Amino acid sequence: MGTFSVTARLANPQRADQSLTLDLLVDTGATWTLLTEDVVARLGLTTPRRRTVTLASGERVAYPAGQVAIQLNGEEVITIFLAGPPGSLALLGAVTLEEFGLAPDPVRKTLVSVGGLLA
User: Fold this and answer.
1) Is 82 helix (H, G, I), strand (E, B) or coil?
2) What is the pLDDT of residues 48-79, one digit of tens each?
3) Res 1: pLDDT
4) In this structure, are residues 108 and 62 in contact, taking their beta carbons and an 8 Å threshold?
5) pLDDT digits (tens, 9 = 90+) for 89-118
6) Residue 103 phi/psi, 5° resolution?
7) Could you tell me if residue 87 is left (phi over 0), alpha (psi between -120 and 50 degrees) or otherwise beta?
8) Residue 48 placed within a domain
9) Which CATH number covers residue 95?
């Protein structure tokens, strides 16, 4: 599967005037959205929690975590993000995609709407 990015508007949920537009790499292999440390600082986001993840190398690492408002295609959700280490990429993770009801179309390199499930 190829990779692609989408443009999103990110904001501090407590201070909507602190926002920016950013390209996020769509990564269905990442559970949560990952933001770079400079984006976290620019938005004034807090990271009161920590989340443990397993990296591709198999190493388990805990990252600071908080909430960010993300707007895609005119819709906004408040989602969990991880604050990435220096040199990391900004990623749009699987939880955020599911909250929006979106899935990647790797051929067209776009996000498509998918229905939710209730069983």
Assistant:
1) strand
2) 999 999 999 999 999 999 999 999 989 999 99
3) 53
4) no
5) 999 999 999 999 999 998 999 999 998 888
6) -140, 155
7) left
8) yes
9) 2.40.70.10
Which residue stretches of the chain are H helix? 37-43, 94-100
- The answer to the question of residue 34 being in a domain is yes
* Predicted pLDDT at 72: 96
Total domains in the fold of the chain: 1
Burial 62-86 (b: 16+ CB within 10 A, else e): ebbbbbbbbbbeeebeebbbbbbee
Q: Let me know: does 35 contact 12? Beta carbons within 8 Å.
A: no
Quick one: tokens of 48? 């009161």
Q: At a CB cut-off of 8 Å and minimum separation 6, what does 14 contact? A: none
- For residue 11, the SS3 value is strand
Q: How confident is the model at residue 118, as a pLDDT?
A: 84
